[in-house]
Amino acid sequence: MTKLSVNINKLATLRNSRGGNVPNLITSAQDIESFGAQGITIHPRPDERHIRYQDARDLKKVVTTEFNIEGNPIPNFIDLVLEVKPTQVTLVPDAEDAITSNAGWDTIKHKDFLVDVIKTFKASGIRTSIFVDPNVDMVKGAAETGTDRIELYTESFAHLYDQGKKEESILPFIDAAKMAHELGLGINAGHDLSLDNIKFFKENIPHLLEVSIGHALICESIYLGIENVVNMYLNKLK
Ligand SMILES: CC(=O)[C@@H](O)[C@H](O)COP(=O)(O)O
Ligand SMILES: NCC(=O)COP(=O)(O)O
Fold first, then answer.
1. 46 upstream amide cis, omega within 30 of 0
2. Which of 14, 16, 132, 191 to mutate to test ligand 1, by most ligand atoms within 8 A of the CB atom?
3. 118 with 145: CB under 8 angstroms?
């Protein structure tokens, strides 16, 4: 079974747009868990445009499933994660001004840095994951950092799948996933996964432990309702 971790960044975007506390992230996360999601993901960015650092602290008190915090390990982020102690930290090399995550780590170039950061988080009992493109060399580099898992950056898959190029979309991910498994790494995936593409991805990627889905899931929920949508994903991930 592949776990569904719901990324609630977009709920925070909506909340922040009015300055109040609607929707309430705490009750939303609790509801999403009660609908069957097996995890909650947040990605606080340095400008706190959606998730605020305080949200991470508040959510930690109520999330009873797997809590995943994603982000670029700048000093403030490292301190936050060590304080909050989520189940998992996912390291993402995102530039501050990027609209969203737009690349995986170069795990060869940044190996020494990643080794240090991974060691710090693991010493605190936090599971680690490194966001990577579907590239076997980057997967091998990730294994050398000591990380527990990788998260495959699925934007290229989603884009090609959308254009009807199914085989082209999935082949690099199959190779990357096989390599990761051979090297003993757990496999997560995320970015632009949706109700349209998730079943094909899941069926083709062996040993997929977890997907984190936010943007599409919240957009789909506008039409279909979030409880319904969470259950639609769970059915496709069986
Ligand atoms: C790591 C990743 O793939 C992102 O999808 C991310 O967590 C979403 O971030 P935004 O909501 O800021 O686009
Ligand atoms: N790690 C990916 C994530 O949390 C959600 O990405 P998206 O579904 O918002 O593109």
1. no
2. 191
3. yes
| pLDDT surpassing 90 at residue 96 | no
What range does the domain containing 31 cover? 3-236
Residue in 14, 40, 101 to alter for ligand 1 test, most ligand atoms within 8 A of Cβ: 101
Distance (Å) from CA 220 to ligand 2 centroid: 14
- pLDDT, tens digit (0-9, with 9 covering 90-100), for 188-219: 999 999 999 999 999 999 999 999 999 999 99
Q: Which residues line ligand 2 at a C-beta cut-off of 6 Å?
A: 7, 41, 70, 151, 190-193, 212-216
Complex confidence, ipTM = 0.96
Nearest C-alpha neighbor of 42 from the set 21, 20, 18, 59? 59
With residue 115 as reference, give the H or E element that holds it.
helix 111-123
Domains in the chain, number: 1
Q: Is the pTM of this model over 0.95?
A: yes
Can you give the CATH number for the domain in which 145 is found? 3.20.20.70
